[in-house]
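Intended use. Records like the one below are meant for learning the mapping from a protein sequence to its folded structure. Do not use them to infer anything beyond what is encoded.
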Amino acid sequence: MTEPPNLDEIHDFLIGLAHKAGVMIISAHPSSAAAVGTKVNSSDLVTETDKAVEDMVSTALKAEYPDYIFLGEESSTASSRLTPAPTFIVDPIDGTTNFVHAFPYVSISLAFAQELKPLVGVVYNPFTQKLYTAIRGKGAFLTSPTIPTSFPYPSISSSTESQKIQGAEYSTRSLPLRSPAAPLDGLRKALVAVEWGNERSGHNWDVKTGSFSALAGEKGAMVHSLRSLGSAALNMCGVASGELDAYWEGGCWPWDVAAGWVIVEEAGGLVVGGNKGEWEGKVDARRYLVVRGGEGGRELVEEFWSQLAGEVKY
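Structure written out for the chain above:
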């Protein structure tokens, strides 16, 4: 009989990989035309560093866990699918456009899932050194420097040098950062994250832009504000932390959301479908609504759905 996955060991192994990837990311300089390419269109970027980080992570995971499936953004194909089998789900750089522009809202997202359910999540922003982690049933946590670090970093070439730069003073706090979480008092008092995505015309574009207008406008929900920061994984961690009240997006992939999914749920938040009535969110559905923990979460979901300008379709 196959032994069940040791989630604690997987969690620790993924954290080690996240730190190694962080060194690679902050050491890179993706400014030359040769280092930056496109996929779907000019807004969908990929760099040599994306590919190098994924190669490093996949090699390490396949060596340590040869019987588990690997699903990564850069190595996936049109036929790649998330299955119920034990699977590592990896986005080597979530926020590639930010990375190219040196905007430090960038992360590596590492998840382990089984039966289509994320069980372990690790999201690490090497520029801020914020590490978000969760194991299903064991809570969600943020480990970060007690003294803010400077940016940009000097060029570094090893994990030892990275530790010298990072220093030794870190704190680990459970999520959400405010406990108990403050009640949610409707969209009119909410800070909401949304993303534009790389589809810039057609049905989904019209639904998104119409929904943004309804959420922000005086004749609609008139939320406190909308934020579009460019990393699904970090947006979800912002919701888990309680810094954002909600996050809505269509067009993501499992590697964008799997790690953040378990972090949000372990912090007491909700992850549901991005279209009205989709209370059972699916990791591979490509449309998501994420709401932080706190009394009134389900009511906020219903109110949010009522503002959408249609259904996004993928």
